[in-house]
Write a structure and sequence with these properties.
This protein is of the alpha+beta class and 538 residues long. The protein is built from 18 helices and 21 strands. The two termini are 35 Å apart.
Length: 538
Amino acid sequence: MAAAAAAAGPVFWRRLLGLLPGRPGLAALLGRLSDRLGRSRDRRRRSPWLLLAPLLSPAVPQATSPPCCLCPEGVHRFQWIRSLVPEFGVCSSHVRVLSSPAEFFQLMKGQIKVAKRRVVMASLYLGTGPLEQELVDCLESTLEESLQAKFPSDLKVSILLDFTRGSRGKKNSRTMLLPLLQRFPEQVRVSLFHTPDLRGLLRLLVPERFNETIGLQHIKVYLFDNSVILSGANLSDSYFTNRQDRYVFLQDCAEIADFFTELVDAVGDVSLQLQGDNTVQVVDGMVHPYKGDRAAYCKAANKRVMDVIHSARTRQQMLHAQTFHGDSLLTQEEAAAAGDRRPAPDTWIYPLIQMKPFEIQIDEIVTETLLTEAERGARVYLTTGYFNLTQAYMDLVLGTRAEYQILLASPEVNGFFGAKGVAGAIPAAYVHIERQFYSEVCSLGQQERVQLQEYWRRGWTFHAKGLWLYLAGSSLPCLTLIGSPNFGYRSVHRDLEAQIAIVTESRSLQQQLHQEQEQLYLQLSVVSSPLFSHCVSR
């Protein structure tokens, strides 16, 4: 009972905070007590394994969830998210869930070939193999056609990558893209984000690869004219062949495409700009990310990104009454007949941004609130390729009432399995964290409510992340989170992340999401104590 009370403590404080929107003084006091409790519990649980690399460090929960204004019925209970971010209402027929790396790769190539106005790609890095070259060749062909067309189009290509990961090795993301920059200097922009936390002596001493643990550009958005792919997949051969991830295609969604174009432009403006001679420059008037003053840089970056979020939210506010209350809109049948008005949306998209170095933590707040408010009888399917939940997320999973099915990579399908040097020990470190969490689940007697499951598939690796929420009594999910965050320390505290919450009342789209979840959860083994007893031989 004492252990259960300890796990439920932080949840109690968060719920009490949500009931005090008009009492800022008391709310601040309770917030400080909650943070102090979380920090003391972190110190007691710290493990020497966590010294392996910063990506394995436990988190100190700092975000306070907003006062909840959940509606009592169906998908409309999630409209509180629009108080934080823009809300985009769409028809479910414009949303398609992809299932395989090959489908993802072929769709990207097809979309590049028909793009007329813009191609925007944000990823951790671009690989250097033949499949990645094929993607670059597609971009080159489309740019060439745009210049030679009878009526030349104003096609622009903007690519955002991480500086440290994209500069690794002699042949790297930068050298792959240089020919495009050199041939189409007026149409191509390549931005390389450099974390402000890697600077000074640290930057000089930390070697290649290890410097990537300090902080990264981790957003994965692939945009072609008015269509967008949100995913956790990078632009690398394994992500096109045998590395399982998640992908959603938003087709002809101009307002969402505009938002993510502006977001990538904003991050690009605070990043280093790749030049045709493989040097980099800062955008005129911008503070240098690692040579300039860190506080000034982060303040400028915060303003640049938040301006995008605020302006998009303002634009969408005019549509709110129409978005959640469709009585002023036509039905889909009526709209088709009239031909001049959009049908009532049945699906709502919320972009969730997390950039803790810039003090932007929207994704963290929304995720914590969703976990907090999942009621008894609800089911949450949560998946991550790297099991290292922050302490706040662990507390919520252990202290709330919903049922949880958590899918994670078995050691053999972890992307670091078989790597040389220290990196080869990372799968074992994740197994250690998994064992610790499972032990806590068992000590609280919650094995039935919280189940861990490992993904295994011969010849494949696992990189899928996100969650599906099934309301109590429902056999289909009405909400999913999909994008780049892993729910871990780095996603919350170090990296730049973006995902979307998809809320839908469309049974067809709910079935797509359910089938996606079922397909991923087919390749699993349930975690139990005997599994750990032979993990050394695995």
